[in-house]
Write a structure and sequence with these properties.
586 residues; alpha/beta; D-amino Acid Aminotransferase, Chain A, domain 1; Glucose Oxidase, domain 1; TIM Barrel; 3 domains; 7-stranded mixed β-barrel; 24 strands; globular
């Protein structure tokens, strides 16, 4: 992990600036492959410089960073990887994790290592037990920044502008400040949580919060102005890289799992992972990989722009009149740090994919191609200009038919480019591809041919392509569909909905939704049997096995290859299935 900003590095340590952040994958670095997993563009509003002032005791000034530099990353990928190689060499020399300070000379442009000392927080954490905090409810988000740690804290807001206000701070309060320095540490030790306006993951507040085991949200930009004194709040760092300050004292749970006492699972227990931000945290749970990683979650959270809107801005497709100048201007502002619209989409998507794949490597990670429906794509920036208005998007313009359509094919090719880069260039070949909502055999043939045309051919470089078995037609013609795919991942939600003819989002018919209905289990039995007969993978991703223990045991008896669950259900389901004595019939 590397932080970077303009000017003297002390500004980053103090927390006076929100820096750029880079994550590097060490195995890819060692193999000489592209290794930057993720880039975070910091605000970098000011830089610390040596002063020309003759004032006694004044040695530095804070000066504004020009807007064009703020919109760019302060390091290139090559520089990030060079620093990472230096860091790995230093770690190897000392034989332990190290905290390293570095600088880039403004005259010769060279990178220099300035200081290296032992890292004393993460490396000392116990590895035998996993603690997982989970919010039981949500409320209004009052402030948002970078999450430090993975805990949750709650208390009354105390906004301090000076250390002289120390006497007003009570144990269990939430400390809110512009930034902190070593003089604040006596207060910080008493805080239930810490929130700052400025700072990155290596600032003083973040370092001390980690040492104390206190949740902190840094770099919010405005917390000291928007959080009212005495207001009860809940500070959550349990939702990934983003930390949130919620209104009120919210309920939350703490689940502790001892890895030393986990029994052998009777079947592969995989995980459904939606957000890359939480991938490394989730990977610490007992698991056999990722059975479902949704590309649409990455697109929504890390890109936020309709792919066709980006292609239109790039001039690669015709720009519709309904794509306004204001929208184009907003798109250009969002992508300013990248080498154009295509680079933005492919790089951001590749970052999300590679983060999940690296977190769980060498275990299998099944990436499902984007499965937005038209109304969901329309919610992206520029989306309304490219999406139809459908009466029933759930069974409309989605899945394989969308990828093959003339109006979306070029956008789909961007997905392929990102996946190809992560597998072939970064070397994360633990990725399998999953195709959702394949209605017909013609679509099955067409989508596998389209993947091959874009460098993702089944069997090349160990690539496997599986299909979501979520339509009755998929189970009824399982043998025929398996001619085009390396296995099935059963989507029990859509399969149940379409078999029973009910809307799973409608409260009026919700009572009838049950994966254990005989019509559904008959189709499941057919799909599983077809895969087993051909020696193909067959898994299931959905809440059914965790909600209904008898359903999970039935799946094992049928010979299911894996069960993929939401992270909060993994440990409990693992233990329950192990205790049941039932084993997969594979």
């Amino acid at each position: 992990f590397i932080s970077s900003s303009y000017g003297l590095g002390e500004a980053v340590v103090q927390g006076a600036v929100n820096p750029d952040e880079f994550y590097v994958h060490k195995p890819a670095l060692a193999a000489g492959r592209p290794a930057v997993l993720k880039r975070g563009l910091g605000e970098k509003a000011v830089q610390m410089t040596y002063t020309d002032s003759e004032e006694v005791g004044r040695t530095v000034d804070f000066v504004p960073v020009p807007a064009d530099q703020r919109r760019r990353f302060s390091l290139t990928d090559d520089e990030v990887q060079q620093l990472a190689r230096h860091a790995v060499a230093i770690e190897k020399h000392y034989g332990r994790p190290m905290d390293i300070e570095w600088g880039k000379d403004g005259v010769d442009g060279e990178l220099y290592i300035l200081q290296a000392r032992p890292e004393t927080v993460e490396s000392r954490k116990a590895t035998g037990t996993i603690s997982r905090y989970t919010l039981a409810q949500r409320s209004n988000v009052l402030a948002e920044g970078r999450a430090i740690g993975q805990r949750i804290g709650a208390g009354q807001v105390r906004v301090l502008t000076s250390i002289d206000q120390m006497a007003s701070f009570q144990a269990g309060d939430v400390l809110v400040a512009n930034m902190t320095d070593p003089d604040w540490e006596p207060i910080m030790k008493k805080a239930a949580a810490i929130v700052t306006d400025r700072g990155g993951r290596t600032c003083h507040a973040a370092i001390i919060a980690r040492e104390l085991g206190i949740p902190a949200v840094v770099g919010t930009g405005n917390a000291s102005r928007v959080l009212a004194e005495g207001t009860p709040v809940t500070v959550s760092c349990a939702e990934g890289e983003a930390g949130f300050v919620y209104e009120g004292l919210l309920d939350y749970t703490l689940q502790e799992t001892s890895l030393d006492t986990m029994p052998e699972a009777p079947v592969k227990i995989m995980m459904n992972v939606g957000t890359p931000e939480q991938a490394f945290s989730f990977a610490k749970l007992p698991n056999h990989g990722v059975g479902l990683a949704r590309l649409e979650f990455i697109i929504n959270r890390q890109i936020g722009i309709h792919p066709n809107a980006l292609l239109a801005v790039a001039g690669e497709i015709e720009r519709p009149a309904s794509l306004s100048d204001n929208t184009v201007r907003e798109i250009r502002e969002k992508i300013a740090a990248y080498d154009g619209p295509r680079d933005y989409y492919v790089r951001r998507l590749a970052e999300g994919i590679s983060t999940i794949a690296a977190a769980f490597a060498p275990e299998t990670v099944i990436i499902r191609l984007s499965d937005f429906k038209s109304n969901e794509y329309a919610n992206l920036l520029g989306g309304p200009a490219f999406e139809p208005s459908e009466e029933n998007p759930m069974i409309g313009y989605r899945g394989a038919s969308r990828y093959l359509s003339d109006s979306f094919r070029q956008a789909f090719e961007l997905e392929c480019e990102a996946l190809k880069y992560v597998r072939n260039e970064m070397g994360l070949t633990n990725i399998k591809i999953m195709v959702p909502f394949v209605r017909t055999l013609d679509e099955a043939r067409g989508v596998t041919e389209l993947l091959a045309e874009n460098g993702l051919r089944r069997g090349e470089n160990g690539l496997e392509v599986v299909m979501m078995c979520e339509l009755p037609a998929n189970a009824l013609l399982a043998d025929e569909f398996l001619e085009y795919f390396d296995g099935f991942s059963i989507g029990s939600n859509d399969l149940t909905q379409l078999t029973l003819g009910l809307d799973r989002d409608s409260a009026l018919v919700a009572e009838g939704f049950d994966e254990r209905n005989p019509a559904v289990t008959k189709l499941l039995e057919m799909a599983i049997a077809a895969c087993r007969a051909k020696g193909r993978y067959v898994g299931i991703c959905g809440q059914g096995p965790s909600d209904h223990p008898d359903f999970a045991e039935w799946l094992l008896a049928q010979g299911i290859s894996s069960i993929s669950l939401n992270p909060d259900a993994v440990t409990e389901t693992w233990l329950r299935l192990a205790r049941s004595g039932t084993r997969s019939a594979i």
